[in-house]
Amino acid sequence: MSEKKEKLLEVKDLKVSFFTPAGEVKAVGGISYDLDYGEVMGVVGESGSGKSQEAYSIIGLLQSPGKVVGGSITFEGQDMLALTKKEMQEYRGNKIAMIFQNPMTSLNPVYTVGNQLVEALRAHDSKISRKEAEQRAMEMMEMVGINNVQKRMNQYPHEFSGGMRQRVMIAMGLICHPQLLIADEPTTALDVTIQAQILDLMKSLQKKTGMGIIFITHNLGVVADICDKVSVMYAGKIVEQGPVDDIFYEPAHPYTKGLLRSMPRVDAQSYERLIPIEGTPVDMLNPPEGCPFAPRCEKCMKICLKKMPPYVEISDKHRSACWLCVEDLMNKEEN
Q: Sorted alphabetically, which keywords does the UniProt record give (predicted)?
């Protein structure tokens, strides 16, 4: 492989559906993005927008009755959807790792933390001895900020605090030096100070290892802190995509603007009232014909209800799927 020439990850027109007794739920409706080596991409959106399902598709952890029904996922030139279960296991944990939202449900309560770290490493490196694996596990625990590692190796998950368990999960995710780390809301269950520590830790580890990160969250503050670019998801579609500064300072889609308006700002010049996004998310069993955000959009036009808008290039690498952007573009071309 010619190093750094190709993208680390390319997702093209990915479609994921859940086939339930009530009908087909289109969880992910044809999304595309790419990720470079050493790049951090934030995936933002409210619960049910399809953030986690697209991530599970990459790593082959999509649960039944979920199914990838279209599109492609290419990791370092390899078609991930063509891999068998056994071949996928070679990638999972070794080249692509995932940190889950709740560390207590991800760690086995009847095994010591040390044992779980060692087994995670030995599962992907059969040549490594147990002693070497234990040494690597202790180094990894130290790297993620856990003190007194020899004692901690023999403790069980319930003997760790929430923040410490999350650090263990990060250590487990990084122990095989993956090239892609998928972090699924890894700081949601933590208090603000621990959250800041975990983010600093992830940033420093990412700089040291040069891995790519997909950071799934609904917290825009976290995105501003850690990400290079952002994909904003709503009802299974990416409605806006671009560099982090463009998304924060020049948002183009009404949903992105709504998310930013509903977030408290510490740099506000005066008291500002938070404005929530009115209405409820769409029923994914019966999604609307047009833009999925149209029923909740204060600037909704007739065409928004009938037809899904195309992507409009706002600036370099910044695009949005909104009929208002199409209108703006047509006005610019006329002038």
A: ATP-binding, Cell membrane, Membrane, Nucleotide-binding, Transport
pTM exceeds 0.70, yes or no: yes
Contact between residue 289 and residue 280 where contact means Cβ atoms under 8 Å apart: no
Q: How far is CA 220 from CA 57, 152, 247, in A?
A: 24, 34, 10
194's enclosing H/E stretch is helix 192-209
> Do residues 73 and 81 lie in contact, with contact meaning Cβ atoms separated by under 8 Å?
yes
Rg of the chain (C-alpha set): 21
Give per-residue burial for 114-133: e unless 16+ CB within 10 Å, then b.
Answer: bbbbbebbbebeeeeeeeeb
Domains of the chain: 9-95+178-334 (3.40.50.300), 104-177 (no CATH)
Question: Coil, strand, or helix at residue 233?
Answer: strand
For the stretch 11-38, pLDDT in tens is 999 999 999 998 999 999 899 999 999 9
Closest CA to 178 of 57, 93, 265: 93
- In the block, tokens 């410490």 appear at 164
Q: What is the secondary structure of 142-175 as a DSSP string?
A: HHTT--SHHHHHTS-GGGS-HHHHHHHHHHHHHT
Name which of 176, 221, 173, 177 is nearest 199 in CA terms. Answer: 221
pLDDT at 271 over 80: no
Q: What pLDDT is attached to residue 39?
A: 93
